[in-house]
Amino acid sequence: RTVYLNGEFIAEQDAKVSVFDRGFLFADAVYEVSAVLNGRLLDNAAHLARLSRSCQALNLRLPCQPEDIEALQNRLIAENSLQEGAIYLQISRGNSGDRDFDFPGESVEPTFLMFTQARPLIDHPKSKTGIRMVSVEDIRWQRRDIKTVGLLAPCLAKEYAHRHDADDALLVENGLITEASSSNAWIVDAEGTLVTRPLSTHILHGITRQALLALAKQHDIRLEERPFTLEEAMNAREVFISSATTFIWPVISLNGKVIGGGVPGPVTGKLREIYVAEAMRATAG
Ligand code: PLP
Fold first, then answer.
1. Ligand 1 close to Cβ of residue 148 (< 6 A)
2. Type and span of the H or E element at 212
3. Name one GO molecular function term (predicted).
């Protein structure tokens, strides 16, 4: 694989970052993951806008203009002949030459890296079978709207899920579901209304979430942005998660309780179909 590091397109084994990089020592870094379909970036302007917001919130300098970042992303996609998968991008506050909590001066350049990951988006088996989930307490920090690389809590949540015979975890705070460990959470409630938690600092403002809300409105699917409890999710008609790299994955059980008879539900299926059609259209040649 060819990766990108600080202005260079190089073989992955040649890409080296200092042990004093603040991304490594303090998780002082932000990231983005954009889907690639038909060799083209999906919804990338929204991802780059969120990247700018993450950087602003942390007073972190963007290494270059968003349009220049997109050109670099496209070159890396071409270098790796990536048709379907994702491109990961990370910007850290750079290497200040020692371990020091204080921010370094302006002269320290951010560390900017990218790599590609080939994976099926359209025909992923889990999009058809659905996944089993468990709930865990949301122990993350209070600014989940900033997409930082401080991801130990979601790693622990996924590890807990795997140890409990599940694929992934939903995160719960004060009895309410915030989101999933690396995706936004949705239910179809007892009245058949599509529900997802409103934007706040408690959740990541998912780009896929935003696109799905717009598509649901266009297709007259009844929807409500409101918090919902774990109990409501366990008794929901349907549950699903959304992210750039899953699009939509149905949830067929939660804490061992079967959801929707153990098969992906109709609203979930319809929304995924609408989203996939739109993604194919947006990335067609
Ligand atoms: N929530 C969390 C905690 C995430 O890590 C992610 C994506 O990785 C999402 C939601 C979904 O965001 P997006 O749709 O922009 O990929």
1. no
2. helix 207-218
3. D-alanine-2-oxoglutarate aminotransferase activity
H or E segment to which residue 8 belongs? strand 8-11
pLDDT by residue (tens digit) across 232-253? 999 999 999 999 999 999 999 9
Q: Tell me if ipTM is over 0.85.
A: yes
Cα(106) to centroid(ligand 1), Å? 30
Residue bearing the CA closest to ligand 1, atom 9: 183
- Amino acid letter, residue 119: R
pTM to 2 decimals? 0.97
Q: Give the ligand 1 atom nearest the CA of 144.
A: 3
Spelled out in words, what is the top-level CATH class assigned to the domain 125-283?
Answer: alpha beta
Name the residue ranges covered by the structural domains of the chain: 2-118, 125-283
Q: Ligand 1 mean position to 206 CA, how many Å?
A: 5
- The finding on whether 146 has its CB within 6 A of some atom of ligand 1 is no
Q: What are phi and psi of 210, to 5 degrees?
A: -60, -45
